[in-house]
Write a structure and sequence with these properties.
Length: 138
């Protein structure tokens, strides 16, 4: 059975509360790289090479532009948390949209029903009304 409006309203209220509780966030993905320097005879040019790093950077697209920023090693854990919070934001918004679509559909097809109604679904009501009409015509 599809969810009733009251159930969807409660789901959306819960999503809003979860959104309000989100901490710092930022989009992007974290990567690490190892570099070679310009110093002659450095270990990074040895055989086998021991390159410098890891260096961390966060890459993201914002307002149509791709950017990347270096992240200090001691800030990596914090940045990871911000990236997770952003993913959570997107997931919560997706769920809100899904619930909003369903709720809108219910409201448009069952506008006369209060949200907390235990009444039959509007589709069944309409079918019953159509049957009544058919009987009265015949
Ligand atoms: Zn080097």
């Amino acid at each position: 059975m599809p969810p009733r409006p009251a159930v969807l309203e409660q789901r959306i209220a819960t999503l809003k509360a979860q959104l309000m509780a989100l901490g710092d966030l930022r989009p992007g993905s974290l990567s690490q790289q190892y570099n070679v320097c310009g110093t002659a005879g450095c270990q990074c040019k040895a055989d086998p090479p021991r390159r410098h790093g890891p260096y961390y950077q966060v890459s993201f697209t914002w307002q149509g532009r791709s950017k990347s920023q270096f992240v200090r090693r001691e800030q990596v854990a914090r940045v990871r948390q911000h990236l997770r919070n952003y993913q959570r934001l997107r997931a919560l918004v997706e769920q809100w949209i899904a619930a909003g679509l369903e709720l809108s559909r219910l409201r448009l097809t069952g506008a006369a029903l209060p949200s907390s109604s235990e009444a039959r679904s509007p589709r069944n009501t309409r079918v019953a009304a159509a049957r009544r009409q058919q009987r009265s015509l015949s």
